[in-house]
Amino acid sequence: MKRLTLFDEAVLNQATFNTRRHFLKQCTSGLGSLAMLSMLESCGFGSPQTTNDNPLKPLSPIQSPKAKRVLFMHMEGAPSQLELFDYKPELAKLDGQLCPPSLLEGKRFAFIKGVPKMLGPQSCFEQHGQSGAWLSDYFQHWPKIVDELTFLKAMHTDEFNHAPAQLFMHTGSPRLGRPSLGAWVTYGLGSENQNLPGYVVLVSGQEPSAGKSVWGSGFLPTVYQGVQCRSMGEPVLYIKNPAEVSDSLRKKSIEVINQINELEHQEIGDPEILSRISQYELAYRMQSEVPETMDITDEPQWVQDWYGAKPGEASFANNCLLARKLLEKGVRFVQLFDRRWDSHGTDAGSGVGDGLRRNIQVIDKPVTALIQDLKQRGLLDDTLVVWGGEFGRTPMMENRAGDNDSPFKGRDHHIDAFTMWMAGGGIKAGYSHGETDEIGYYGVRNKTHIHDLQATILHVLGFDHEKFTFPFQGRNFRLTDVHGKVIHDILA
Amino acid sequence: MKPYWLVGILGALLLAAFTLRGLFSSEKISYNQHIRPIFNAKCITCHGGIKQSGGFSLLFREDALGKAKSGKYAIVPGHADESELVRRLVIDDPELRMPLEHEPLTKQEVDLIRTWIDQGAEWEDHWAYIPPDRSITPPNTGDSFAKNGIDRFVYDRLQQEGLSPSPEADKATLLRRVSLDLTGLSPTAQEAADFLKDNAPNAYEKLVDKLIQSPRFGERWASMWLDLARYADSKGYEKDLERSIWLYRDWVIRAFNQDMPFDQFTIDQLAGDLLPAHTPLAADNHLIATAFHRNTMSNDEGGTNDEEFRNMALIDRVSTTWEVWQGTTMACVQCHSHPYDPIRQEEFYKFFAYFNNSQDADLYNEKPKLYTFTPENEQKVKQLMAWINTRSSSPTIKPANPSLNLNLQRQDLLSQLGYRKIEAEDFDSTSRHIELYDNQTTIMQTTEGAFCMYNDVDLTNVSSVTYRYTTSFPSFVELHLDRPDGLLISRAHVPATQEGDPGAWYKWKTFGTFRAPVQKTTGRHALFVVFRKDKEFRSDLLHVDWLQLGVANAPIDHNPELHQLVDSLAAVPAISTPVILERPISRSRKTSVFIRGNWLTKGKPVNPDVPHSIRRAATQPMENRLQMAHWLVGRDNPLTARVMVNRFWEQLFGYGLVETLEDFGTMGAKPTHPELLDWLAVRFQDEYKWSVKKLLRDMVLSATYRQSALVSPELQKKDPRNLLLARGPRVRLTAEQIRDQALAVSGLLNDKLYGPSVRPFNPTNGSWKEEKPDNRHRRALYTFWQRTNPYPSMVTFDTPQRNLCVSRRVRTNTPLQALITLNDTVYTEAAHGLASFMSRQKGNLPQKLTAGYQQVMYRKPSDEKLTLLEKFYTDALHLNTQKKHSKTLPSTQTPEFGALSMVANVLLNLDETLTK
What we know:
The complex is a heterodimer. By secondary structure, chain A is of the alpha/beta class. In chain A, about 30% of the residues lie in helices and about 15% in strands. Chain A contains twelve helices and 17 strands. Chain A has helices at about 5-30, 35-45, 80-85, 90-95, 160-170, 180-190, 245-270, 270-295, 300-305, 315-330, 355-375, 450-460, and strands at about 70-75, 125-130, 135, 150-155, 200-205, 225-230, 335-340, 385-390, 390-395, 410-415, 420-425, 430-435, 435, 445, 450, 470, 475-480. In chain A, strands 1, 4, 5, 6, 7, 8, 11, 12 and 15 form a nine-stranded mixed β-sheet that branches. In chain A, strand 2 (about 125-130) and strand 3 (about 135) form a beta hairpin. Chain A is globular and about 80 Å long. The model of chain A is unreliable at about 1-50 (pLDDT under 50). By secondary structure, chain B is of the alpha+beta class. Chain B has 32 helices and 15 strands. In chain B, strands 2, 4, 5, 7, 10 and 12 form a six-stranded antiparallel β-sheet that branches. In chain B, strand 4 and strand 5 form a beta hairpin. The radius of gyration of chain B is 33 Å and the shape is globular. The chains are: A alpha/beta, B alpha+beta. Chains A and B meet through helix 1, helix 5, helix 7 and helix 8 of A and helix 1, helix 2, helix 14, helix 26 and helix 27 of B.
């Protein structure tokens, strides 16, 4: 490069230009310029210049979206489809018979060993609503909402342990390190309420076994990770001022911080300072809006009763009511985790009989109220609701003691067939998609893989799951990896 | 963005001019300059390493010159007119014309390709694969600005851009910047005073030399390295149990502090186990270094296949090695050849073969491990062993081999004396019924027939077994030889250790021991401990703490004093660290390609080697890890020195000379200052002999680094991210720097070096409250790193989770960060500390506030800023006195102290504080 001719230089410039342009294309492919602003920094193309370059700025997708926000209710542990939705009279007839070897060949289970016995449904089924949806008698309230839902009865997954299956459901990969669905969505769409986090997670029971990674941001900037709001204690970490700092004192302190930062900006000229000023303002607004939103005592008593909510508890019912409040305020992605559904039948609480019936009582009323409430507020039209576990349960009885005299009936983890449902924006109401065989062991028609579900969720929000990518370690990653098909049959 | 577009358009125009000229001249077309950009932009996605549409790929010359699926030759060197490639670029038929369904290439581009083929279609390596030119010297320019060679390259580039450098920053700014950069901490009061009053021309140089010698230096640079090493104190995945590997972290700190040359630093970490060592201590240190690759995640969840996760860990070791030393992305090559860079899938598995022979296998106990002692415990062990040797006086006892690791000497002695406590190797991998409880100290058994395995146990003369366990239900424990259903040599009916059923297994607290006879056998065996229920089935039967084999007629049985000594010796705690050790050749594993990356579908067998497109002078295969490590830091390796120089540069300047630190491949960014990068890389190797301290010293002594960060609107517009370096670096501090600075300026910092990770107050983990008070204010890098629940203020300020190697932290600017520095307990404490400092100062309020500001920024506040602070103090005091107080207040709760604390809180939240 010692004697650089004008022509050489021109070609060099052209080459540099090409590389940069390519980089930019990689960063934003599929999204057009949507997420570009927010991602400039990490893709290596300019840093946020002004306060408008807020990474959570609301953005609209390119395709016309049917839903603007998402509520995902994850029943951690995996509820039994065979007691709840997937009515199998044939299985009842086989109850107590030894499982034919053909069903066990080449299969791996988490717990079942040897030859298990078949286990008939432990509940009674009836059809409900105009759609005639089959539903277990464990539910008292859900019959009122079945006509709003689309059941996915032939779901299947690849992972038979809780943690990898949960990661698979929420990040598209069973291993740690990928961004969660909620992080992708918040990255792509920003948030409509700048005073609240864009992606909120509420947990009842213990945390999911896969840990916080199921709402992590993976290789996306951490600003897109789910913010776990706690229904007890501080709703968001450090949202509360220390005891000795009053609200007016905090307000004054943020004012003086920003005034000094303003002087600093005048002197130095770095636009990042302006960005910091706006983030401090936002932090202050969050300090008042988050606790306010997370307080359910301001809801009328009849609404609290409707959901079965009791202020001060870290309960699923409270979380349902909070979910409605958050969605109403423009939070993009709300995720509820409820951990109580691992029905192995090793003790009274974990059977698919009374144990599961009792668990259903915890969610029956709140979920019904939530769907009805969203509907009456007109929010259901553009809110996508998803409900389900990370996998299903076997038609065989799990028998840990190996002597078939367990007093409690339980089922093992099952990857080949389970039921989930979706409702709201862009999804058919009162519909059922997919079918399993006579004993609910395999899907036989319209099977839906986890990646299909993810592709469909993104589609409803206006994204093409094949083009919505992010470059990491030399590869363009997407939520659905190299798989997934949109389930067009269930779209309204 | 605009300037780039302009440059692009200008470039295109000039390109047209060039091509016209090119047509009439015989000037040589360069593949890298002219052709590769076209191929990369227009062709490579379909004709690269993954997609080879029509059987045609442009990645390697030998592929591109071969016959395509159509039977035609795409490129016939010397004959553009016979080349199918050219025909297909210009053909009218849209179904044949390339690129398919995209804009055709411009006439100029086609002409370039045509000429290039006519000239022989020579391929050239990507710039980063060509070794740096060792004859580069800094341009002879910028005399007025330059303090060293770096500045001449920078100045040259600025001149080309019509820019000029900024003046040197003021002393206080420089002091704080260089101190945070080199030590991760703001300077101590002494360092600051010395420097600020020193008017010698080399005052800054003296400061730099002092900082580089500070033990804080190693801590600061370890933070960078630990991201690359994906260092964490837990294993990841669902269980994410604790992993004891902090000695590796300390090894890294020491290596930086001792300025271990980077080549040795590399070899120790990648192949320390294969190095000769002259002393047991040196051997231990080599092994601790290999823990670099034991930072891979491992899965303790029941039902997971250990072999699968062993392979996952190996894949990560390959990818990490390539990202860290070669700036090359390998993740895609595990499934197929690289889409953009000249690396074949087979070559991934050849490299994989270097790691495939490591003994570790995703076992819960993390074997192989190295056991070492703290200095005090080491003395204790040596003393006890000496006493025992004098007291046992048994002729059958062989003296310990002093060249062995001390713990091995201890184990040997204990075993000879009849003390054999053993650790489980493996569990029944198809169920989760055996798990580890209480942070892996207890084996918990849950199911009838479940087992755990103890490998390679010497059973000669063993006559009994003792279990320490807890349960509420009587049950059976059996010992089988070699298989879970092998020869039964012991069956014990172990009684409940506590009365009644407390309801849940985790409430079992009472441990007891039970001793059962063992049928005599000889030799070493795998020992399977199988659990059987008695009358009652429970999902949890029994938890075993440990088991110990008893030897008939053991020396300790006859000598109570000896027995006591042996017990004390066995009880001295050792620090365990997982390390890399090779399997013996007789048991070495064969490596095959995983077809499409699936570890269950094995393809062609391969032998260890490194990719040939990077190792150009490939004479002989490199057979082992040690040779491979030597190659990485050898003179022929074109990447390592460039990649590392670039990483250090980025830490100081905010952006790398190659912005994509992790990708020096064809899809990575081009260097902004290619000759500077190469010059530094050559110096790093040849002149500094891989001394990191010398390299960093050069960088921070440059005029480029010392510039003021002030930026005019014009410059901001032209170069928003300061890639051209017309001003000094100004970026937000890292998570570690922010915390450490707050602790330092408030006087809270406990500057103890090294040791186990600490658990400062953490609202997401109540158990951390029990941490010793003096561990609450250690430097951030000692904070316990839990992969699935990272310390909140660290992730909020953009640390990675450390599941995988991460080269670059993306700097975000969010409200959650503000909430941390405003309200996180540690920042509240720091504000109180800084307030105490201010209240101790002599003088009036403005003087106290000035001292507080100076404590953080090392310069006086401007009058405007001071006025704002004073006014705020008055407001805060006013608000505080309105609150109702009891009459007698401790001095830290007076309204005045509260107001000062608020000022301190403000100071810790200023943009200038959070930025360097």
